[in-house]
Amino acid sequence: MATSTTQVYCLAVAEKTDSVVRILAAEQDLTSFSWLQRGSIAEFVNFFTKTVIERTPLGQRAKIEEKELLGHVFIRADGLSCVMITKSTYPSRTAFSLLNRLADEFSSKFPQKSQWATMNPATTSPRYPELKAHLTKAQDPESADPFMRVQKELDETKIVLHKTMESLLQRGEKLDELVIKSDELSSASKVFYKTAKKTNSCCGY
């Protein structure tokens, strides 16, 4: 179970197309979890990130609750997607302010989609160290840093869809079944998911 020290578990930038979601850059902070849990939790964070992007239409912002997790997603019309996974108590206006700026920064630094085709978190990290810095700053949502300053004109009640993870699933789908079928998760992580769900631990799973 996570302690209260970490507010933001993941920041990620991805490309959404008709056929696939590709993670281009990602940074995680899972230090609040025991080292024995971190591998499985990292896989679940990636699974959660891809799933919310897949199920959110282009041009939308949404926040998706799943137990103790809150996923904030911003998907531009061109498919550039930014996701922030936080504790459920994290202020959403701050999260979406960061995601707006993150999308602008990333597309300015890597303006060509042809660049995106060869990117993945491992190769992008040294080329985009700003992402890790943003994750560190985001841990303090009250920070006076300009990057985290709330954009007053953003009215999330009008432009943000508030959903649960279950509401993103198609009729008849269950999250448990997606986990079982997922190629993103190892066998060990699937066993961990079942065990953690029974004990209501690991981010509420």
TrEMBL record:
<dbReference type="Pfam" id="PF00957">
    <property type="entry name" value="Synaptobrevin"/>
</dbReference>
<keyword id="KW-0449">Lipoprotein</keyword>
<comment type="similarity">
    <text>Belongs to the synaptobrevin family.</text>
</comment>
<dbReference type="InterPro" id="IPR045848">
    <property type="entry name" value="R-SNARE_YKT6"/>
</dbReference>
<keyword id="KW-0564">Palmitate</keyword>
<dbReference type="InterPro" id="IPR042855">
    <property type="entry name" value="V_SNARE_CC"/>
</dbReference>
<protein>
    <recommendedName>
        <fullName>Longin domain-containing protein</fullName>
    </recommendedName>
</protein>
<keyword id="KW-0636">Prenylation</keyword>
<dbReference type="GO" id="GO:0005794">
    <property type="term" value="C:Golgi apparatus"/>
</dbReference>
<keyword id="KW-0175">Coiled coil</keyword>
<keyword id="KW-0472">Membrane</keyword>
<feature type="domain" description="Longin">
    <location>
        <begin position="12"/>
        <end position="132"/>
    </location>
</feature>
<dbReference type="InterPro" id="IPR011012">
    <property type="entry name" value="Longin-like_dom_sf"/>
</dbReference>
<dbReference type="GO" id="GO:0005484">
    <property type="term" value="F:SNAP receptor activity"/>
</dbReference>
<dbReference type="InterPro" id="IPR010908">
    <property type="entry name" value="Longin_dom"/>
</dbReference>
<feature type="domain" description="V-SNARE coiled-coil homology">
    <location>
        <begin position="146"/>
        <end position="205"/>
    </location>
</feature>
<keyword id="KW-0488">Methylation</keyword>
<dbReference type="GO" id="GO:0006888">
    <property type="term" value="P:endoplasmic reticulum to Golgi vesicle-mediated transport"/>
</dbReference>
<dbReference type="Pfam" id="PF13774">
    <property type="entry name" value="Longin"/>
</dbReference>
